[in-house]
Amino acid sequence: MDKTRATLVWRDIPGLDPTNFTEPDQWRRKWFTENSNSSRSGSRCNFACISVAEKREEKEFSPTSAQLVNHPLALVALVPKDVALFAAGAVAGAAAKTVTAPLDRIKLLMQTHGIRAGQEGAKKAIGFIEAFALIGKEEGIKGYWKGNLPQVIRIIPYSAVQLFAYETYKKLFRGKDGDLSVIGRLAAGACAGMTSTFVTYPLDVLRLRLAVEPGYKTMTEVALSMLREEGVASFYNGLGPSLIGIAPYIAVNFCVFDLVKKALPEKYQNRTETSMATALISATIATLTCYPLDTVRRQMQMRGTPYRTILDAFPGIVARDGWLGLYRGFVPNALKTLPNSSIRLTTFDSVKRLIAASEKELQKIMEENRKKRDQTSDCTI
Question: What is this structure's pTM?
Answer without folding.
Answer: 0.61
